[in-house]
Fold this sequence. Notes:
α3 links the parallel β5 and β6 (118-124). It is built from 11 helices and 8 strands. The chain is an alpha/beta fold. α4 runs antiparallel to α7. The chain has helices at 41-49, 76-90, 102-113, 132-148, 150-160, 170-178, 183-194, 202-205, 225-234, 248-251, 254-268, and strands at 2-8, 11-20, 26-30, 53-57, 95-100, 118-124, 212-216, 238-242. The chain has a single domain (2-130, 196-268), classed as Rossmann fold. An 8-stranded mixed beta sheet has the order 1-2-4-3-5-6-7-8, sandwiched between helices. Residues 26-126 form the AB hydrolase-1 domain. One of its GO terms (molecular function) is hydrolase activity.
Amino acid sequence: MGQFFVETDGGRDRLEYTEYGTGDAWVVLLPGLLIPRRMHDNLARTLASAGAHVVTLDFLGHGRSDQPDDPMAYSVTQFAEQVVALLDHLGAAQAIIGGTSLGANVSLEVAVIAPDRVKGLLVEMPVLDNALEVAIVSFAPMLLAARIFPIGISAMRFITSRVPRGIVPWWVGIGLDTVEHRPGALAAYVHGLFFGRVAPPAAERRRIQAPALVVGHPRDPLHPASDAEMLASELPNATFEKATSMLEWRRSPERLDLLATKFVLDCWRPTRRPRRAAN
Length: 279
């Protein structure tokens, strides 16, 4: 585990990350909305065992990183800038940037603001045009609860923080970590994302040249497969893969892990120079 600091208008904030593996074949994995970085532990270990140097990051407001109460501290663009700051901190000239849900959107934003730093994109269930209404309906109550009924959020945090993570199933522990937020920070986080840029617009997405593997889920109202398919059609060098279910990469990850590993290795495989013709 490691940490680094970013300077913002509100001060200096600490972010935490975990490294797996070694070498220069960098991969950065980014979590979903409010979910801690350890959601990608298994995939990170799989990619590292294949030779990649993988880093999982807690954005500001996530997991063990700082959680300021300032809404201006949270946006997809600022999360993307944090990824670039992480690459600078690690001394990584380029990396494959990947993520789930919010992490997928941030990956796209990194490819827009720092295209020369992106070796490839590993994008799972992006939240784009077809998910807007469901996202608002899903997360507006969270913002209202944090603003109007903060004692309820504090009570939930008090209860979940006292559950030992070692005695519950792994995904239950991640769920407990996800809801363990102070009401002020939670309200600021959701407010910042609601009123900021959610993802690069289509015109900018079409200019992303990095190779991409885009994974979509069927029957997922918040992350419709139509968004993932649309994104794959927009990106000039993208491949679309449809998961068998919303939970395939969580419960039976072998197939998608294999696809992701092949994609990562292909991105980092040295380009062969054409042989000079014999005289």
